[in-house]
Write a structure and sequence with these properties.
Elements: E1 5-8, H1 13-21, E2 33-36, H2 39-48, E3 53-58, E4 61-63, H3 66-74, E5 81-86, E6 94-103, H4 110-113, E7 116-124, E8 137-148, H5 154-162, E9 167-169, H6 172-175, E10 178-180, H7 192-200, E11 202-203, E12 217-220, H8 226-231, E13 238-243, H9 246-258, H10 264-274, E14 280-281, H11 289-294, H12 298-312, H13 317-327, E15 329-334, H14 337-343, E16 351-352, H15 361-366, H16 369-379
Parallel strand pairs: 1-2, 1-3, 5-9, 11-14, 12-13, 12-16, 13-15
Antiparallel strand pairs: 3-6, 4-10, 5-6, 7-8, 8-9
Helix pairs in contact: 10-12, 14-16
């Protein structure tokens, strides 16, 4: 089933996006997302774009495993509305808006902007998810109640009960897959498996196009060939490499200090074996599993890597590489490029290349919206 996610903008937007745009191990989910400044705009967008269902999430909601969450929602039994139902004794029931799912085509704009609601008096489950105010479900009773709207979602609740449709709460299986940041920092240990992969990843090539910028002082991540192709250009005299992967930093440093510019494939193979690397990327998204399996052979791997590398450089590379090593400067730092740029004298660099880090799960998890926006201004 295909449905979009509508996110209410907030200070923890990046952390929420990181857990929706990427799966548990950082692969892009290609999830359709619309970020809004109020729920009415989000609902209208979903309605106008013909979506019959949508998930509404407040910034600060963290999904631990998007693939599992999506499957759970697709199989969740409901009659048009799933939400955090809140019903304190002696008060009218309402919805905590941190996360809710609706059949968009069952509701109208008036359900969001009404001031007074009239609906069948609700009956609640005897059991609560926790405390005494989180019923598993509510359904329409025999009597009728009318009251002013005092909390979010009461118009949606009224519409459901008027149709004699029960409303279900998020049960424990759903709550185990998500959490909400109540003005507290995200515990990154939740994503320890992913963090370990990202911080030990080796990028052999780039998965985006590379520009030789022809500037004197450059700042960039260490992934792939960008820094190599730029340091050998006559205009470039210095490169500062900042990368969150300690493996990438070690690889770049080893290249700069020990590699003679020949047989890149064999150098990469030896580095992988010497460091017992499991997580390395050739950046060939369309490579079949069989072709990847074939590259476990040293000769096939070396030939493949050398073929790609040699098609990128010209016949003078070995000479200009060794010349650059004698005359130019490359510095290395294992750090977050975003915060490094903001906390250091980055203005002395003529160009900052950020690769794809702004669209990377690790960066979103570790970077606030303010840091993210300030970094983009620096890059521009």
């Amino acid at each position: 089933m295909s449905w979009p996610v509508v996110i209410l903008r907030g200070s923890d937007l990046n952390q929420t996006l990181a857990t929706i745009q990427f799966d548990k191990f950082g692969t892009n989910t290609n999830q359709l997302i619309f970020v809004c400044d109020n729920w009415i705009d989000g609902f209208v967008w979903a309605k106008n774009n013909g979506h019959t269902q949508a998930l509404f999430i407040k910034s600060g909601t963290i999904i631990k495993d998007w693939s599992q969450w999506r499957e759970l929602v697709n199989n969740y039994p409901h009659k048009g509305l799933i939400a955090h139902l809140i019903w304190h004794p002696e008060q009218a029931v309402y919805i905590n808006d941190q996360c809710w799912f609706m059949d968009v085509d069952q509701f109208d704009l008036d359900d969001f902007i009404c001031n007074t609601v009239t609906y069948p008096s609700p009956i609640r489950s005897k059991q609560n998810l926790h405390d005494d105010y989180t019923p598993l479900w509510i359904k329409a009773g025999d009597n009728t109640v009318t009251h002013p709207v005092t909390n979010f979602g009461q118009g949606l609740i009224a519409k459901q009960l008027q149709k004699n449709h029960a409303i279900v709460n998020w049960r424990h299986a759903a709550r185990d897959l998500k959490l909400f940041l109540y003005n507290s920092p995200l515990d990154l240990d939740i994503f320890s498996d992913y963090k370990r992969i990202a911080e030990e990843q080796l990028w052999i090539f780039n998965n985006e196009s590379i520009d030789v910028v022809k500037k004197q002082k450059l700042l960039s991540p260490g992934s792939g060939l960008y820094w190599i192709l730029n340091i050998v250009h006559p205009a470039t005299q210095e490169i500062q490499i900042v990368d969150i992967s300690k493996t990438q930093i070690a690889f770049c440093k080893s290249l700069w200090e020990t590699w003679d510019g020949t047989d890149y494939g064999n150098f990469v193979w030896d580095f992988i074996k010497q460091h017992d690397l499991v997580h390395y990327e050739l950046d060939e998204q369309n490579m079949s599993p069989l072709d990847r399996l074939k590259l476990q052979s040293k000769s096939r791997f070396v030939n493949y890597v050398n073929g790609k590398f040699n098609s990128t450089v010209d016949s003078t590379f070995v000479h200009i590489w060794n010349q650059a090593k004698r005359n130019k400067i490359v510095n290395f730092c294992n750090d977050n490029l975003v915060t490094w740029v903001l906390n250091n004298d980055s203005d002395k660099y003529d160009s900052i290349w950020c690769s794809n880090i702004l669209y990377y799960k690790w960066t979103l998890l570790h970077t606030t919206v303010e840091e993210y926006n300030n970094f983009q201004k620096k890059v521009k």
